[in-house]
Amino acid sequence: MSGVPEDLKHVPGIRFVDHVAIAVKQGDLDGQVKAWEMLGFHEVHREEVLGGDQVREALLRVGDGPNLIQLLEPLTTDSPVQKLIERNGGRGGLAHIAFRVESAQQAFDAMKASGFQLIDKAPRKGSRGTTVFFVHPKSRADNPFGFLIEIVEAPESK
Fold first, then answer.
1. What is the pLDDT of residue 5?
2. Most buried by CB count within 10 Å: which residue of 6, 63, 65, 74?
3. What is the DSSP secondary-structure string of 3-15?
4. 36, 41, 43, 49 alpha-carbon torsion, rounded to 10°
5. What pLDDT does 25 receive?
């Protein structure tokens, strides 16, 4: 794990916050992008993610840092993001927090061995060429996180 400080090596390679994902209601994505642009953010990526996710995403960055805001708009009523919006009384809100790792497989194996409840059976293809997996909000019964966590490996890490 080159580049990871010694005291963080016991953590499964987490390097920094990749993005904070925010659910937005169907039809609100463009308006939300404009609102974030008024805060100084600029859109750096947009993609439809099908499969089990069923979302349209927009990634926004402020400045040149690595941290992103991800806006997620559900494409179908079966989208997990739509179900989150329904649980929120029809409002958007925090969908998940994503952490960047050097190796998704290494993080997956370490978290599984440590007893984390992982939603995915293995790391899988994510948007923008990433490899990802999700950690359940109630993963640690003794100290649940209370929100969904995504682990992200950038394509340049491969």
1. 46
2. 74
3. TS-GGGTTTTSEE
4. -60
5. 97
Residues 6+ apart with CB under 8 A from 6: none
Contact assessment for residue 57 and residue 70, using Cβ atoms and an 8 Å cutoff? yes
Buried b (16+ CB within 10 A) or exposed e, 141-156: eeeeeeebbbbbbbee
Residue pointed to by tokens 């990526």: 45
* Residue 43, token pair as written in the block: 């859109």
Starting at the earlier edge strand, list the strands of the sheet with 131-135: 42-49, 55-61, 68-74, 14-23, 93-101, 148-153, 131-135, 124-125
Both tokens of 109, joined, read 């194996």
**pTM score, whole prediction:** 0.87
The share of the chain scoring above pLDDT 70, in percent, equals: 91
Please give the span between the terminal C-alpha atoms of the chain, in angstroms, as a whole number: 12
Total residues belonging to the chain = 158
Query: DSSP character for 103?
Result: -
Long-range contacts of 137-142 (CB under 8 A, 24+ apart): 140/115, 140/116
**Can you list the domains of the chain with their CATH numbers?**
6-157 (3.10.180.10)
